[in-house]
């Protein structure tokens, strides 16, 4: 008899940037709040957003998330938000100074890796300090993942034979 899947707690699944891990060597992660309008929150809850090219910039001591696309809410009316705009991130002054120092000294990039709702209330963005990968690094990662997949297939075939 097939097992029934348990219902989830109602919290929306996080929006994940799969390209970030492929294009960057992710070093450290930090969680930040994000300033959104009401219609943006509703669209995010419906997972109507694209995080693929999103990155963060530090301007005048504040952190902004650029290239994060949230589709306008279908029932938003005249109060709807623009699709792409810089969105302010909420971080401590110490955290911002630390990130700014690392970006300037080491040549790192702030990449958005995940957007989710914490405690089903607050919209949060997971940022990662990343170092851009070269083409040969990407090829090496693809070879490793292919090898892992082949091993998993062989193990599965051996167990079922």
From TrEMBL:
Main localization, broad class: cytoplasm
Homology family: Belongs to the SmpB family.
Protein name: SsrA-binding protein
GO biological process: trans-translation; trans-translation-dependent protein tagging
GO molecular function ontology, one term from the record: RNA binding
Coiled coil feature spans: none
InterPro entries linked: SmpB, SsrA-bd_prot, SsrA-bd_prot_CS
Key words, A-Z: Cytoplasm, RNA-binding
A GO CC term assigned to this protein in UniProt: cytosol
Subcellular location as annotated: Cytoplasm
Keyword Transport on entry: no
Pfam family, one: SmpB
Organism: Leptospira sarikeiensis
Magnesium in keyword set: no
Role according to the record: Required for rescue of stalled ribosomes mediated by trans-translation. Binds to transfer-messenger RNA (tmRNA), required for stable association of tmRNA with ribosomes. tmRNA and SmpB together mimic tRNA shape, replacing the anticodon stem-loop with SmpB. tmRNA is encoded by the ssrA gene; the 2 termini fold to resemble tRNA(Ala) and it encodes a 'tag peptide', a short internal open reading frame. During trans-translation Ala-aminoacylated tmRNA acts like a tRNA, entering the A-site of stalled ribosomes, displacing the stalled mRNA.
């Amino acid at each position: 008899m097939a097992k029934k899947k348990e219902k989830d707690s109602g919290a929306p699944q996080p929006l994940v940037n799969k390209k970030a891990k492929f294009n960057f060597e992710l070093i450290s992660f930090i969680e930040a709040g994000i300033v959104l309008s009401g219609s943006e929150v509703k669209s995010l809850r419906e997972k109507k957003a694209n995080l693929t090219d999103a990155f963060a910039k530090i301007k005048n001591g504040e952190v902004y998330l650029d290239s994060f696309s949230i589709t306008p809410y279908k029932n938003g009316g005249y109060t709807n938000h623009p699709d792409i705009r810089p969105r302010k991130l909420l971080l401590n002054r110490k955290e911002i100074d630390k990130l700014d120092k690392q970006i300037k000294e080491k040549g790192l990039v702030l990449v958005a890796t995940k957007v989710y709702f914490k405690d089903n209330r607050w919209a949060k963005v997971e940022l990662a300090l990343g170092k851009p990968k070269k083409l040969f690094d990407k090829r090496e990662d693809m070879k490793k993942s292919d090898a892992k997949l082949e091993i998993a297939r062989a193990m599965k075939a051996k167990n079922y034979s």
